[in-house]
Design brief:
Radius of gyration: 26 Å
Number of helices: 19
Largest sheet: 4 strands, antiparallel
Shape: elongated
Number of strands: 8
CATH architecture of the largest domain: Up-down Bundle
Length: 525
């Protein structure tokens, strides 16, 4: 892992622990004031503004340098944690607390997508991207484990104010960790602001694969929110524990997530990632059904931990597939839409659990939740199979692409998109592949064989052999073919169509740099 990626992960750790700590601190604070109904209703309402505003403010993560964007996001979040600490210390009314929380959640929901957009920029290979996402999920799971424990411990000693002060300090350190990161914007084209804001929503709506993955994000966080509220309620009313016991039951989900995230690194390079995600989603629900019959804090914590481990695998696969499916220039905005879906899931879970508890009781509510998750996993299974069919990674093609110097430096997501759209083309000795003066319609890479490059004025220029590419000049500079390429012997070529090549190469900062280098080399030759 390079040093910049390490700094990003440290900052995300300092972001993740407070995120869960403040949520659990809020639930305990509201439960003490008004029970499960108050915890679910007010906690859920505080998330609503972030649901609506997150896709609007997330454009800054694509249109400004992402190193700068992540620093601003963490710094603003630290400031808002400080405001919340002051509000709690002043004994402000509950509606003022909810307002401060709403502003905080807007800042957090705008910042997290920038992290997920940065990771593909810094990951060096497709396998490295999965492992980097595994670290991210491990950190988030650690936050889910440590955050509730910290929240319960601090709340018992200093109330909600102590929790908020701790969170503000952590976010200040996260901002410091991101100082001086030199990362480009995802979209450096000048576009209308309104169009830029809506781009993420349009992209998600137009892509069935991305829509399915965003739906999974929302459902996973619905389950997480429901387990948080149920954990606090079940521990207090059924197991008769203190705030620390409530924190332990909620933290168990995070502890399981640590195990799941650590195991998830083994998914790097594995096929059928989406189907494995669907299987893991069903495993999120099954242990919850067993919690219904538990009357021991530690047994309930173990079962919730198993659910959390499966949830971490779902999150890892979902994030990786979303990074692979979505274009880099709108990636932060697509993750912001996913963030809104997560928050919608949180709200539904927070609102729905109190009604469910009132109807069937805290213990049976776990069975209802677990059963619903299993049914959802079965319902989305066909869509996940379709994603796997379209997201198969042809490793042989990726390795061939990496042999081209100006493609080797591209991000894994760009290489994967090229690999998925490429086709094999056999040619026989004497066959003309491209002709000087023709319109450029494709880029080619030689897998095996030998080809001759010639021009009308100079004759033979050079020979092409395995691992070399040709045809990029006409595509990148939008000019006619500058040479004729003829097969000297039977050969196997990899063909990438013009639109696919330009979409992968020129719609990113790396691509623009590549285009400038190729153009300069051509003009100087």
């Amino acid at each position: 892992m390079n040093f910049r990626l390490f700094r990003i992960m440290v900052a995300y750790a300092l972001f993740s622990v407070p995120e869960i700590a403040i949520w659990v601190g809020l639930l305990i604070f509201l439960y003490d004031r008004g029970g499960a109904s108050a915890a679910g209703l007010i906690g859920g309402l505080s998330l609503v503004p972030a649901i609506l505003i997150s896709p609007l403010v997330s454009t800054f993560g694509d249109r400004m340098p992402r190193g700068q964007a992540i620093f601003i996001g963490y710094a603003v979040t630290a400031l808002l944690y400080s405001v919340l600490a002051w509000v709690w210390a002043a004994g402000a009314p509950t509606f003022v607390v909810a307002l401060a929380l709403s502003l905080l959640y807007i800042a957090m929901s705008a910042t997290r997508p920038v992290h997920y957009a940065i990771v593909p920029q810094l990951a060096e290979t497709p396998e490295g991207l999965v492992r980097a996402n595994s670290v991210t999920i491990f950190i988030a799971s650690a936050g889910m484990f440590i955050g509730p424990l910290v929240a319960g411990w601090l709340h018992d000693r200093g109330g909600a104010t102590a929790v908020a002060v701790f969170c503000a300090i952590c976010l200040g350190l996260a901002a410091v960790s991101c100082l001086g990161l030199h990362l480009p914007a995802g979209d450096d084209e000048e576009t209308d602001a309104a169009d830029a804001i809506s781009a993420g929503l349009r992209y998600v709506w137009s892509s069935p694969r991305v829509r399915t993955l965003v739906l999974v994000s929302g459902l996973l966080f619905l389950a997480a929110s429901a387990m948080d509220v149920l954990g606090v309620t079940f521990a207090a009313s059924v197991l008769n524990t203190s705030s620390t016991g409530q924190g332990i039951l909620v933290a168990a989900v995070g502890f399981g997530g640590l195990i799941g995230a650590a195991a998830g690194s083994a998914l790097a390079g594995k096929p059928r990632l989406a189907q494995m995600m669907g299987f893991a989603f069903a495993l999120v629900g099954l242990p919850l059904i067993a919690v219904t019959f538990s009357r021991s804090l530690w047994l309930a914590a173990l079962l919730c931990g198993l659910s959390g481990a499966a949830g971490a695998l779902v999150a890892l696969a979902n994030d990786t597939l979303l990074q692979r499916c979505a274009a880099d220039d709108v990636l932060a905005r697509v993750f912001a839409v996913s963030e809104s879906a997560m928050l919608i899931g949180y709200v539904i879970g927070a609102f729905g659990v109190p009604a469910l508890v009132a109807f069937v009781g805290p213990a049976p509510s776990y069975a209802v939740l677990g059963g619903l998750l299993c049914l959802v996993a079965a319902a989305i299974w066909p869509s996940l199979r379709q994603i796997d069919r379209t997201q198969h990674l042809p490793e042989e093609i990726i390795e061939l692409l990496r042999k081209i110097p100006f493609l080797a430096s591209m991000r894994p997501s760009g290489l994967e998109r090229l690999a998925q759209s490429a086709t094999w083309v056999p040619v026989v000795a004497g066959e003309r592949v491209i002709s000087e003066g023709d319109h450029g319609d494709a880029f080619f890479i030689v897998k095996d064989g030998r080809l001759d490059v010639s021009t009308a004025d100079a004759g033979h220029r050079r020979a092409l052999t395995a691992g070399e590419g040709f045809g990029e000049i006409a595509l990148l500079l939008d000019v006619p073919r500058t040479a004729t390429v003829t097969a000297e012997e039977d050969a196997q070529l990899l063909r990438i169509e013009r639109d696919d090549f330009l979409a992968a190469v020129t719609r990113s900062q790396d691509g623009h740099r590549v285009a400038r280098e190729v153009a300069a080399a051509h003009l100087s030759s």
